[in-house]
Structure formats: structure tokens, C-alpha cells
């Protein structure tokens, strides 16, 4: 497993456009809010888990401002599957991910499962069809997590290498129970209370399997 500074470094190096200072402050905000493992310093510091890595990836991608770390984490972590991903397509090659898809889950559960699969090695095997491949990075790039904000949504695209195809799904806030005007108005007020004031401008930020593989490699090291 990796210490916190090692996790921060691999996220900075892999994402490329998020400054080290931003990753550091996001991480500190998560720790202060009790949202990642804490304890010790240096080589004797706390060992980071798949859940820690998933939380840090989420906020570093979805929150351009370090002032909003916890608010953005809470916006995205509980998003629910819409147009759900099909677990049966992944049962044989991504067991950690398939197990999550077969039960009631949220987006942070899915992202944590992908980190676990990167640690165990099943993600790399899935992306290479269990055969070392010179185009591994191309396959890894095809696994995409597209964050849409500030109206929180995440689109997930998973390549199926042997079939030369893929599956996709969306994670978003739960919709209204029905579409009568009173229900929609109450649902809108509930979302506004959860997410706060949001303007009309949307942003899209994407990371791929390349970052997940790098994080998994670091967390796997003894």
C-alpha cells in the first residue's frame, strides 16, 4: 500500500493539469472532514486504501476550487445509476466492479471498485484481454469517467476489448417520483438545497483508465 504523499504524487503526475498544491489542499480538506484515512507521518504514515484514492480522485477531477472539496465530494459521492451499466458483461474480467453493479450502489462505490480492480490487477487484464499489449494505453484511454458540473453527473464508458465494443452508463441525482408540477417543484427545491446555487454554465472534466492503472500500481506496492 502507499502513504498519502505517494498517492498525491501519482495523482498529480497522472492527471497532469491539476497543480500539486491543489491536490495537497483537497487531500487536507478530506482528512479534516474525516473522509480519508489519517495517522502518522512519513514512511510510518497511514496506508491509503482504495476508498481514499477514490475520494481524492473524485475531488481533484470534479472540484476546480479547493474551497469546495467537501461540498463537491458530497454532491458526487451519492449519485445513483441511470441507464445502468450491465454487470453480466464484466463478471468474468472485472469481478470487483461487477459485484458493485449487482447491488444497490452509488457512484463512489463504483469508483472505489475500479480502484480495487486496478490494485488487484484485474483492470489491467481486462484492458489487455489478459495478454500483454503494445496498445495498452489506447485501451486504458477508452475507459472514461466524464464529470459534468456543477450540475453533478458522471458518464462512465467501459471498453470491451475482445468484442471491440463497450458499455456506458450515467450517474446522476435521483429524479422525481412522478412528473406532476408539485412533485417536480418539491424535487427541484430538494436539489437546490443539496447542491446550493448553481448557474447555467456547465463544465466537463474527464479522466481515464490511465490514471486508475497508475494509482493501482502505487497502492499495490509493499
Blueprint (SSEs and pairs):
Elements: H1 4-15, H2 20-32, H3 50-62, H4 69-77, E1 80-82, H5 95-101, H6 107-120, H7 122-128, H8 136-142, E2 144-149, E3 153-160, E4 165-172, H9 181-195, E5 203-208, H10 209-220
Total number of strands:
5
Strand order of the largest sheet: 1-4-3-2-5
| Rounded Rg | 18 Å
Mean pLDDT: 87
Large-scale geometry = globular
Question: What is the percentage of strand-forming residues?
Answer: 5-15%
End-to-end separation: 6 Å
**Largest sheet data:** 5 strands, antiparallel
Contiguous low-pLDDT stretches (5 residues minimum) are none
Order of helices and strands: HHHHEHHHHEEEHEH
Count the domains.
1
How many separate helices?
10
Fraction in helix: 40-55%
The helix/strand class is alpha+beta
Write up this protein:
Helix 1 (4-15) packs across helix 2 (20-32), helix 1 crosses helix 3 and helix 3 packs across helix 6. The protein has one domain (4-220). The mean pLDDT is 87. A hairpin with a 3-residue loop joins strand 2 and strand 3 (153-160). It is globular and about 55 Å long. A five-stranded antiparallel sheet has the order 1-4-3-2-5. The protein is 49% helix and 14% strand. The protein is an alpha+beta fold and 222 residues long.
